[in-house]
Amino acid sequence: MRKCTYSSLFLALLLLLGACGSGGSENQEEAAYFPIKTWTEVQAENLDGFQVRKQVRVGSHEEILEDTLDAGGWLELFEVFLDADINTSSLAAAYETSRKDNVLRHELRPGEKGRVKWIEVRYLQNEVKEVSFSAETDNFFYQTSVSGRLIMHAARQHLDQFRISAEQKILFRAPTVLQVTGHVLPKADAVLPRLDP
């Protein structure tokens, strides 16, 4: 394990990605698409006081960190998911929704403009099992792509694992690749349900 300050670099890039977003969600009475922002906020509240073990990799350098986070800390960690919300009036008809088996998918229609390319939700027995997305920002000076995945723990009914990947290509510079993978650790005082073999 190598101690370094790549977490700061990663957070700075994620803030840049958020700044390039669509400007946040607009309040609507009924969401046209899966409400990824609201869902993520609820998960962050449910994880208040839980520990996280995360591996942060920047290029070939990596560090492993453990920390106990409050709800605000989880929201900061999952900021890219909040920024991936597509429930705005300007995007109301921009995505095609499909359902197949236990998968709900919103995909940007050809010719439509949107930073988020797709959102996919997987269900298990009518409960959300996994949420993932992919987004891109492209202009003359730089190209940025970010993707994320949140996975629920079926027995414990809270988030269990996550993965966030980002790549930024700036004109005349080598691309920067960042990746965070993590696991939610149970609270020390938590009574966990028994998992039968």
Q: What general outline do the C-alpha atoms trace?
A: globular
Task: Give the number of helices.
Answer: 4
Compute the average pLDDT.
84
Decide which structural class fits the backbone: alpha+beta
**How would you write the strand order of the largest sheet?**
2-1-9-8-7-6-5-4-3
How does this structure look, described?
It is a single chain. The chain is of the alpha+beta class. It has one domain. It contains four helices and nine strands; from the N terminus they run ααββααβββββββ. It has helices at 6-19, 36-46, 71-77, 79-83, and strands spanning 51-58, 61-68, 95-100, 103-108, 116-124, 127-138, 142-153, 158-170, 176-185. Strands 2-1-9-8-7-6-5-4-3 form a nine-stranded antiparallel beta sheet, with helices on one face. β6 (127-138) and β7 form a beta hairpin. α2 (36-46) packs across α3. The radius of gyration is 17 Å and the shape is globular.
Detail the topology: elements first, then pairings.
Blueprint: H1 6-19, H2 36-46, E1 51-58, E2 61-68, H3 71-77, H4 79-83, E3 95-100, E4 103-108, E5 116-124, E6 127-138, E7 142-153, E8 158-170, E9 176-185
Antiparallel strand pairs: 1-2, 1-9, 3-4, 4-5, 5-6, 6-7, 7-8, 8-9
Signal peptide: 1-24
Keywords: Signal
Protein name: Lipoprotein
